[in-house]
């Protein structure tokens, strides 16, 4: 419950146009210090949980182990983590491409789901809690690769979860 409260507080801060990406280029040590705040840590943890849920616990854990082995006592960048997980997925998913959309964009997407009979359609757009006129910029080009999981009435209780990667504005 405490973690969920932290997530919602971070999402609130991240939903303003004045937010910033989790990962960005820095020029000074002061900028580095500014990057390591609650938003970065909580959003980063949320993104890792999202990835773990999408990939499955075993695949995610294997990717983390590869990452730790490959970068033992060395410096690393976020791409190194995504590359390590890509090794485990054997090219079935470009984890780096997916996660870049989450760490280089500020904010997060709002996904709208519409059901018409047996057809489900989904659409994404950037979520704004409150538009700040003095800081507003159009983010129409923002596109996240959103892992969506769902169950259907065909669930046999051994494999209930299906996955879909929304990597376009709508699908």
TrEMBL record:
> Which terms in the Gene Ontology molecular function aspect does this entry carry?
metalloaminopeptidase activity; peptide binding; zinc ion binding
List the SUPFAM superfamilies. Metalloproteases ('zincins'), catalytic domain
| Protein's UniProt keywords contain Protease | yes
List GO terms (cellular component aspect). cytoplasm; extracellular space; plasma membrane
Under Gene3D superfamilies, the record lists: 2.60.40.1910, Neutral Protease Domain 2
What is any one GO biological process for this UniProt entry? peptide catabolic process
**Domain Peptidase M1 membrane alanine aminopeptidase: residue ranges:** 5-102
Domain of life where this protein originates: Eukaryota
Output the InterPro entries linked to this UniProt entry.
Answer: Peptidase_M1_aminopeptidases, Peptidase_M1_dom, Peptidase_M4/M1_CTD_sf
Q: Which Pfam families match?
A: Peptidase_M1
Annotated keywords = Aminopeptidase, Hydrolase, Protease
Q: Does the keyword Hydrolase apply?
A: yes
The name under which this protein is listed is: LCAP aminopeptidase
Q: Which organism's genome codes for this protein?
A: Rhagologus leucostigma
